[in-house]
Design brief:
The complex is a heterodimer of chains A (96) and B (1254).
Chain A: H1 18-27, H2 39-56, H3 58-68, H4 72-82
Helix pairs in contact in A: 2-4, 3-4
Chain B: H1 2-9, H2 12-17, H3 36-39, H4 41-52, H5 57-62, H6 67-73, H7 81-84, H8 104-107, H9 119-153, H10 158-165, H11 168-181, H12 187-202, H13 216-222, H14 232-241, H15 243-248, H16 250-265, H17 280-284, H18 315-320, H19 326-342, H20 347-353, H21 374-377, H22 419-422, H23 436-453, H24 456-468, H25 470-473, H26 475-487, H27 493-510, H28 518-525, H29 534-551, H30 553-564, H31 569-586, H32 588-599, H33 605-622, H34 630-637, H35 646-663, H36 672-684, H37 687-700, H38 706-723, H39 729-743, H40 750-765, H41 774-791, H42 793-800, H43 809-826, H44 833-849, H45 857-869, H46 871-874, H47 878-889, H48 894-913, H49 917-929, H50 936-957, H51 962-972, H52 978-995, H53 1001-1014, H54 1020-1037, H55 1039-1049, H56 1055-1071, H57 1078-1084, H58 1090-1107, H59 1115-1126, H60 1131-1148, H61 1154-1164, H62 1173-1190, H63 1192-1200, H64 1208-1229
Classes of the chains: A mainly alpha (96), B mainly alpha (1254).
Chain lengths: 96, 1254
């Protein structure tokens, strides 16, 4: 994921305490957020998490398959495909 | 606290290099003789663990050091690096900080300017130097041969001819002697001779030693006699040998006269000492400047230096022409100090010391004559006033005496040693008038001085400035200032650490600009790689690794290539280590082609040697990470096994050993090609080479498959057995180690060992002498234990059991330790009746005969054997053992009594198995009688023994009865000794747990009060035992009284005491059900006192932690209290309440208390903006607890309000909470994410799947 870890907003005293480590630790995981995240990025994470969750829980997958009248395998494939660009192309950034 | 610091202190390199110093061997050249690094696996384990749990280096360095050393000598121990270095490491000072070099990358294709030094120039210089060295060697050899020839030919004339034929050094010295004989007429000529040292110094000697200031004496004295010039020190010593010529004649007086002249020029508080007075030792240690101008030394450059215009320059005067070196200064200071302390007492002083009456002043005996001969004066106490007549000193206002000069412009204090480097800062010139370059220099000097000597804040800002402005100040000026400082002979650890830190920071900033200075930096940093101090080594590695990343591989190779075949072994050694760091920084593959070329160098064996050593160092440094490159590394060095040079063969074998050790247990296929040469080699080599080959084999065999291992072991065993007899200590150690490695390998059969190895092994190694050297001792014990693992207990124990009665105690101890380890590993079931009898007999004998046993070897051995035999087998011997114990409990020596008591605690379990309860009861009574013991160590052991007995025979059967025993223990609780406290509290706790009913409640209350004091103990184990004992007592006598005592204790000042009290309250609540404690506890919260309220909150926090899900019954009761605490102004209230909420939430998750928890979350939530680390930590954890108890969706709803808040500070906090929520329960969030509106056609954010419905 594209991920910018922002150090500028920190004070010098923050840099070495346990909380900075916490944030650093969090930043290692894909899907976590930060203060400079915009609506689009967050939404992409939400979508991907959702699809991953649907694919991961077989009963959910079965439920959707019945609702859409598709095979479970097809449904899984569709969800995985949708994870590529779940919300379309990113919008133009205003500030850059 | 420590836990919080630990992650910070793990430096980059410790992670990379696994923090182990197991591999840090500091051999000069041939580590064949070094087994220490592997000698004790246990030590390594500990060392490795310790390496990662440590305080930050800055703290360690600033810690007051040498506390106990101070007591031993009365003087603070020197912190200078040079004082703990050996002669080999001091050779670093012989290195030259070479001029900067051409940077091929920066200048592109341009031809370098003629004055810059290119790679070619340097290689040429190196070759020249080597050639010169060779030539000198040849000349020396020829001379020697010639002389021998002559000596053989003209045996008779030898004596007469000696002087003209001797080596030049001899000749010069003799001339000096002749001059002495011819007396003072030729003094001008002697003067010329005195000048010689200076000439000698200006030409680089064979060691390439441009003498660094203050070291010249050393540098010269290490030179070959061949090009020796008489150093002042040496001549001084020589003149001692002819005292008649110097002292008795007027010539001697003339020598004495010289310092007087200079003394007039620079009157000093220090007594003028005649040169003859000086002890030869001082002269020898290369401080010719000791004579005149002692005072002048404080301010070089201010006081005019005397003696320059004298007709005959004294050795001191020669030296004073230059600025006085820091070392000389130190020596002067030291001498002055000693003289002050040792000056004779005056009559007045004696009068004040002794009482007026009762003492009489005696006349000196008539026969007494004061010492007048100079030779004997050397030994006499110097008088403070050496000059016979007092001359009024001229006033000299420039003089500084001992007071350091006030520094201009808020600069830190400057040590006299620093004047040489920072003296320019003292000239208070107008900075405006300086040229920009000079200003820059001055700026750098100021900053460096602040870093070196300043206070921590000064240091910090200076360091930051240096870092920020590094590029602006320029690489050249920076390094030209920093690096000489690091070569300063009086440098201390802390200073070096700081300067190295400067280099590190600056390196990072300068990046590719460092290229011309790489070699300079290496000269200074490489010695760190072989420093004794672990942190210095890590620091050195870090710098070199950063340096290689900044400069790039090509530059590093170009800089270090010329050093690879340097004539000085020291240079090659450090270069090899530096190269291994480069390899680990830039990757081994990048370095392989270069290494290959070096290892095959035809030109010099030194290059091959260094190349192979680099491979060894790589293996040592990066451990198992060599595996991917193992085959290529082995291929690179394998030809070295057949090299024509012995040293190359040795280092090759050692490198293979290091590679095999690093690769273990994998990678045998990479060693295929070297097996044959190795096994062939051991048949043809002897001595050191053989030792190295054996070492390599020892490390390779464990990698092999069983069949091969067996075959190759048999091959090597012949040689090993032959070498069993070797008188060489190193060989012995290596042989023992290899035997251990071979024997532990799978394919080697027990029968083979029994028949082929054991007889010779025991004959050669199990001798008294082996027990005397610690390393031999360890290695022998380890190897024997390893053999025992293969061949079984009886074979080994049967052979050595008789030696338990040997007359040498160290040997008995070694036998005992081996038996202990063998029996502990393998048990005693194989020991037959006869051996058993011998064993017990021997052990009893050894135990009784021991005189000193600091490591408890005998005790452990006794315990191990008795426990291994166990049950019925020991029963027949028990009366005898107990008799011994009882007798020894009554011994005069405290140590013996202690051991006897310790032995009881070791064998108590076995005595129980033998149903010797009566005997134990008897011992209990005996121990009870000894409770008056005055030595705390012994008392502690007696309590421990009592505890062991009580544990096995139980409360009811115990004699003396518990009701008598406990009152006797109460006063002992007051004892402040840790061992006593620990054993006593354990015993009391045990009684409180199991036999509380035997003791009246009032006694228990008395004990409660004593226990409060125990909470102050330093040792955690004692505090923990105390807190648990509170719980037992509360259970026995009901919580009310105990609780009242504890709640009162919350008012004390000491934090540790309060914390322990809160834990005790929580434990009481846990053991006696919370409802007995909570009312009183909550009532205590009404006391308007911070400590008490916080104590209550903390108790609640611990309480809910301990009672877990039982908390669901109490959560509604304490909620109002927590509400109040979470709204308190005091931070600590909120922090502690938050942690109570956390434990509560975690305890009651899923038990239907959501309503109360949501209510509490509403109080916790506003604290999320706290900045104090402890508070915010507690709050975050409370929220995490809520996530578990309430579900992620609820907390997410709290979160959503702030994720896109306009203020960044707010957003940051909310995202942090969101992230921990996300990491904790990502899947649960899917259902709870908010519905986002789509943006145009492009971006669809809705999740239609969730709305599907069947």
């Amino acid at each position: 994921m594209f991920f910018i870890f922002n150090l500028n907003g920190w004070q010098a005293s923050d840099r070495f305490n346990i909380n900075s480590q916490l944030e650093h630790l969090q930043a290692k995981y894909v899907g976590t957020g930060h203060a400079d995240m915009n609506r689009f990025e967050w939404a992409v994470n939400i979508q991907r998490d959702s699809y991953a969750s649907y694919v991961g829980h077989y009963p959910m997958l079965a439920y959707f398959a019945i609702a859409e009248n598709e095979s479970i395998g097809r449904e899984r494939y569709n969800f995985m495909q949708k994870m590529l660009l779940p919300c379309g192309l990113p919008p133009e950034r205003e500030d850059e | 606290m420590e836990a919080a610091l630990a992650p910070n202190s793990i430096t980059f390199d410790t992670e990379l290099y696994d923090g182990s110093n197991r591999f840090e061997d500091y051999n000069r050249e041939i580590p064949a003789n070094d087994e220490e690094e592997n000698a004790d696996a246990m030590d390594n384990e500990v060392a490795r663990k310790l390496a990662s749990y440590t305080a930050p280096r800055s703290l360690l360095n600033e810690m007051p050091r040498g506390g106990d050393d101070d007591e031993s000598t009365g003087f603070p121990k020197s912190q200078k690096i040079i004082d703990r270095e050996d002669e080999y490491r001091r050779r670093r000072l012989n290195q030259v900080i070479s001029p900067e070099r051409h940077d091929a990358f920066a200048n592109g294709d341009k031809t370098p300017k003629p004055e810059t030094r290119s790679y070619a120039d340097i290689m040429r210089e190196a070759a020249l130097k080597r050639e010169k060295e060779e030539t000198l060697k040849v000349i020396a050899r020829r001379k020697k041969e010639e002389e021998e020839n002559k000596a053989a030919g003209k045996e008779k004339e030898r004596e007469r001819e000696q002087q003209p034929q001797a080596q030049p050094s001899q000749k010069r010295r003799n001339r000096w002697d002749q001059n002495q004989e011819k007396s003072d007429g030729k003094k001008a000529k002697t003067g010329l001779d005195w000048d010689m040292p200076e000439d000698g110094m200006s030409t680089p000697g064979r060691w390439d030693a441009t003498p660094t200031p203050g070291r010249m004496g050393d540098a010269l004295s290490r030179k070959n006699r061949w090009d020796e010039t008489p150093t002042p020190g040496r001549t001084g010593a020589d003149s001692d040998s002819t005292p008649a010529g110097g002292g008795a004649t007027p010539a001697g007086m003339a020598w004495d006269a010289t310092p007087k002249l200079s003394g007039l020029a620079t009157p000093t508080p220090k007594r003028q000492r005649s040169r003859w007075d000086e002890t030869p030792a001082t002269m020898g240690s290369a401080t010719p400047g000791a004579t005149p101008g002692g005072g002048a030394a404080y301010t070089p450059g201010v006081t005019p230096v005397g003696g320059v215009e004298l007709a005959t320059p004294t050795p001191g005067a020669i030296n004073l022409r230059g600025a006085i070196t820091p070392e000389q200064y130190n020596l002067l200071r030291w001498e002055k100090d000693i003289e002050d302390r040792n000056r004779p007492l005056t009559d007045e002083e004696l009068d004040t010391m002794f009482p007026q009456e009762g003492y009489k002043i005696l006349e000196p005996p008539a026969s007494y004559v004061p010492i007048r001969t100079p030779a004997r004066k050397l030994l006499a106490t110097p008088t403070p006033m050496g000059t016979p007549l007092y001359a009024i000193p001229e006033e000299n206002r420039g003089q500084q005496f001992d007071v350091p000069k006030e520094m201009p412009g808020g600069l830190p204090f400057m040590k006299p040693e620093d004047y040489q480097y920072f003296g320019a800062l003292l000239n208070e010139e107008d900075e405006e008038e300086l040229s920009p370059d000079e200003q820059k220099e001055r700026k750098i000097m100021k900053l460096l001085l602040k870093v070196k000597n300043g206070s921590p804040p000064q240091r910090k800002t200076a360091l930051r400035q240096l870092t920020d402005k590094a590029r602006e100040l320029g690489a050249g000026p920076l390094f030209n200032r920093i690096l000489p400082l690091l070569m300063q002979p009086t440098l201390e650890d802390q200073e070096r650490h700081l300067l190295v830190k400067v280099i590190d920071r600056v390196l990072y900033k300068l990046d590719e600009l460092v290229r011309p200075y790489v070699h300079k930096i290496l000269v200074v940093i490489e010695p760190l790689l072989i420093d004794e101090d672990y942190y210095a080594r890590v620091e050195g590695r870090e710098i070199i690794s950063n340096l290689s990343k900044a400069a790039g591989l090509a530059t590093m190779i170009a800089a270090m290539r010329p050093d690879i075949d340097n004539i000085d072994e020291y240079v090659r050694n450090t270069t090899a280590r530096a190269f291994s760091v480069v390899a680990s920084a830039l990757g081994i593959p990048a370095l392989l082609p270069f290494l290959k070329a070096v290892c095959q160098s035809k030109k010099s064996w030194q290059a091959r040697h260094t190349g192979i050593k680099i491979v060894q160092q790589i293996a040592i440094l990066i451990g198992c990470a060599v595996l991917p490159h193992l085959r290529s590394l082995v291929e690179i060095i394998e030809h070295g096994l057949n090299d024509e040079n012995q040293k190359v063969r040795t280092i090759t074998a050692l490198s293979l050993a290091a590679l095999a050790e690093a690769a273990a247990p994998y990678g045998i296929e990479s060693f295929d090609s070297v097996l044959k040469p190795l096994w062939k080699g051991i048949r043809s080599h002897r001595g050191k080479v053989l030792a190295a080959f054996l070492k390599a084999i020892g490390f390779i065999i464990p990698l092999m498959d069983a069949i091969y291992a067996s075959y190759y072991t048999k091959e090597v065993m012949v040689i090993l057995i032959r070498e069993f007899q070797s008188p060489d200590e190193e060989m012995k150690k290596i042989v023992l180690k290899v035997v251990k490695q071979c024997v532990s390998t799978e394919g080697v059969e027990a029968d083979y060992i029994r028949s082929d190895i054991l007889p010779e092994f025991f004959r050669n190694f199990w001798v008294r002498r082996m027990a005397l050297d610690r390393r031999n001792y360890r290695q022998l014990v380890d190897t024997t234990v390893e053999i025992a693992n293969k061949v079984g207990v009886p074979d080994i124990v049967g052979r050595i059991v008789e030696d338990l009665k040997d007359e040498s105690e160290p040997y008995r101890r070694m036998v005992m330790e081996t038996i202990e380890k063998v029996v502990a590993n393998l048990g005693a079931s194989d020991i037959d009746a006869r051996l058993e009898e011998l064993l017990i007999d021997g052990i009893l004998y050894a135990f009784q005969e021991q005189t000193s046993d600091d490591a408890n070897v005998m005790l452990n051995g006794f315990g191990a054997v008795v426990n291994a035999l166990g049950g019925q087998r020991v029963k027949p011997y028990l009366p005898q053992i107990c008799g011994t114990i009882k007798w020894r409990l009554n011994n005069k020596s405290a140590k013996v009594r202690q051991q006897a008591a310790d032995l009881i605690s070791r064998i108590a379990v076995v005595m129980k198995q033998c149903q010797e309860e009566q005997l134990m009861g008897h011992l209990g009574v005996v121990l009870y009688e000894y409770l008056g013991e005055e030595y705390p160590e012994v008392l502690g052991s007696i309590l421990g023994a009592l505890k062991a007995i009580v544990n096995v025979i139980g409360m009811t059967k115990m004699t003396p009865p518990i009701k008598d025993l406990l009152p006797r223990l109460t006063p002992i609780l007051k004892n402040r000794h840790e061992k006593v406290q620990e054993n006593c509290i354990d015993l009391v706790g045990r009684i409180a747990d199991r036999g509380a009913e035997f003791v009246p409640a009032r006694e228990w209350m008395r004990i409660c009060f004593e226990l409060l004091e125990m909470l102050k103990a330093h040792k955690k184990g004692i505090r923990r035992a105390t807190v648990n004992t509170f719980g037992y007592i509360a259970k026995a006598i009901g919580p009310q009284d105990v609780l009242a005592t504890l709640l009162n204790n919350l008012k004390v000042q000491e934090r540790q005491n309060r914390v322990c009290t809160t834990v005790a309250i929580a434990i009481v609540a846990e053991t006696c059900s919370p409802f007995t404690v909570l009312p009183a506890l909550m009532n205590e919260y009404r006391v308007p006192e911070l400590n008490v309220q916080n104590g209550v909150l903390k108790s609640l926090s611990f309480l809910f932690e301990y009672i877990g899900e039982m908390g669901k019954d109490y959560i509604y009761a304490v909620t109002p209290l927590l509400e109040d605490a979470l709204m308190d102004r005091d931070l600590v209230h909120r922090q502690t309440a938050a942690s109570a909420v956390k434990h509560m939430a975690l305890g009651v998750a899923g038990l239907g208390c959501e309503d109360a928890l949501v209510h509490l979350l509403n109080y916790v939530w506003p604290n999320i903006f706290e900045t104090s680390p402890h508070v915010i930590n507690a709050v975050m954890e409370a929220i995490e607890g809520m996530r578990v108890a309430l579900g992620a969706a609820v907390v997410l709803n709290y979160c959503l309000q702030g994720l896109f808040h306009p203020a960044r500070k707010v957003r940051e906090v909310y995202w942090k909470i969101y992230n921990s929520l996300y990491i904790g329960a990502q899947d649960a969030l899917v259902a709870a994410y908010p519905v986002l509106e789509d943006e145009g056609d492009m971006n669809v954010y809705s999740r239609p799947e969730l709305t599907m419905f069947i």
